[in-house]
Design brief:
The chain is an alpha+beta fold. The chain is about 20% helix and about 40% strand. A six-stranded mixed barrel has the order 1-3-2-6-5-4. A four-stranded mixed beta sheet has the order 10-7-9-12, with no helix packed on it. It starts with a strand and ends in an 18-residue tail after the last helix.
Length: about 230
């Protein structure tokens, strides 16, 4: 997993008015929380924060957070849990950090990156991605940033690639059902619908032929009338 250093300072003023003034001065409010720990209010340089978060987009990152004024005088290791932005200006309004311990295992969603062009796609099939992320358990810095899957050999209507076939480091654990399909190649929808319609038509014709040949059970048999002997 990616590790990155960031700086923050303790924030003592609270409320909407204080947060507004903080943003006007070029800073963004943030909060740091963790298991069995009191939340810590922070202030961070807005421009630096925006630049870092843009760089982190789409990646799992452990942030080494150095807090000015923190009595412990030690770095805090945190994950970015939530980012609030202005819908119009896209400026950062607030960030939530979650504190972790580097020697304690966690579970994270890891992106799955599919590479190559499947053989089945070259024959007209469609790549059907069923898992964009998978859950991985391990020490924070051991969890991979992403898992790469080469789909080149996937044939049309093949079984696909399951979670059990993913390549992950030995020191982490996959927290998914091993037979869960991550990706496969399927026939185009129009082609599938056409095949279903043909099958239904075939079944209807067979049923009609069987009905014409069969004599309904319990129905009286008809006989040719006997030739008249009268002259």
């Amino acid at each position: 997993m990616i590790q990155h250093d960031m700086n923050a300072s303790l924030r003592e003023d609270f409320g909407k008015g204080a947060s507004h003034q903080l943003r006007l001065s070029g800073y963004a409010p943030a909060i740091l929380y963790g298991r069995k720990k009191e939340p810590v209010a922070l202030a961070m340089d807005a421009k630096t924060l925006s630049k870092n978060l843009l760089q982190f987009h789409g990646h799992n990152v452990v942030v080494s957070l150095e807090i000015e004024g923190d009595k412990s005088k030690k770095k805090r290791y945190v994950l970015i849990k939530d980012i609030q932005t202005d819908p119009i200006t896209e400026k950062i309004l607030h960030v939530d950090f979650f504190e972790i311990e580097l020697k304690e295992e966690i579970v994270m969603d890891v992106s799955v990156l599919y590479t190559g062009t499947a053989k089945g796609v070259e024959l007209g099939g469609i790549l059907n991605i069923l898992a964009h992320t998978v859950k991985i358990k391990g020490l924070p810095l051991d969890i991979p940033d992403e898992i790469e899957v080469d789909v080149t050999e996937l044939e049309l209507a093949s079984a696909g690639v399951t979670c059990g076939e993913l390549s992950i480091p030995d020191n982490v654990t996959l927290e998914e059902e091993l037979d869960k399909v991550c990706v496969s190649v399927v026939a185009p929808k129009a082609e599938v619908e056409e095949e279903v319609e043909e099958e239904e038509e075939g079944e209807g014709e067979e049923g009609a032929e069987e009905g014409a040949e069969a004599t309904p059970e319990g129905a009286p048999k008809t006989e040719e009338p006997a030739a008249s002997t009268e002259k």
